[in-house]
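User: Can you help me understand a structure? I only have the sequence.
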Amino acid sequence: MGKGGKGGYDADKNGPWIFKGKALYQLHLVKVSEAIKSVPSDLQLVSLFGYTLGGVYLARYSESPCGAFDELVVLGGLVWNKPLSCAWASRVYVNNEAARKHGVKTCGLPSRRADFNSAVVVGNDDGNGGEKKKKQLRSLATILLPGFGSLQTTGTMNRNSNTNSSRTHHPWWRREEDEEQYHNQQQHHNHHHHSHVVDVSESKNSKCCTMRLPMAPKKIVSPRIKMFLPSFSGRTKTCPELMKYSLEMNANVRVSKPIEMMDDDDNDENVAKKGKTNDVLNGVIKGKPVVCIAFENMHMSVGKPMKFDLV
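Assistant: Let's start by predicting it. Here is the structure, written out as tokens:
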């Protein structure tokens, strides 16, 4: 399971709590009409021309107070409370019961228990894999700034150089302990690209979403950046008050190719059967990706949430 703090969250109820691992943070343009469905009505949305910034945060924690676990946060929209603004977590999915309970009871988060099932997709067209997928999702950052792509540590993958790129990249979802298994798969498939399709579901009949994840460079050369990110939570049945907490992150940061949020009609034999998409996620999935940021070798310190009033 990976390392965890002695005694879990109960060993230090006041925090700060330490998380180590990696994450992808993708921002989407979300229609305000969709965002208000999952953001408390008393919170002011930051919007322009009928759109706000929502998205998804996908993390693989190798260490935490409750051990290793995966987390998907659905960000409904950008909310404002002077002088701060942050993305509102409309739903949180984790595959660890201790993490779910802590999120609900202590942090005032709408956390739910879910399964993260992955399937390997083999392709030879690009680093995202999937020859059957003709329409690739590209971030607005790359479209608006053509030269920006050259700064990405992921690099531009040549369609005719699968062998070289497979030696320098691997699926982002892969853990370090899976290196030998991945290497054997590469040999078996003549170095064709492998990407992971991850299906997040609360049950067999309640699918949250399905994502095709980008490739990641094996060698991390991106700068290490320290950030302080204020966050809001609360407005749940368990915690009706509004809360805020500090989040300090130290990680190697790079721009990544986007997460592809797959529709229900994206049928693929390699992908697990899908159920009905969760309605909270629907508006975010349909949003246009703006940018996807990867956090590698992440060290995150989260403070205990405190109650506060709207200004």
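Now, to help you interpret it: The mean pLDDT is 78. The radius of gyration is 19 Å. Let me know which part you'd like to focus on.
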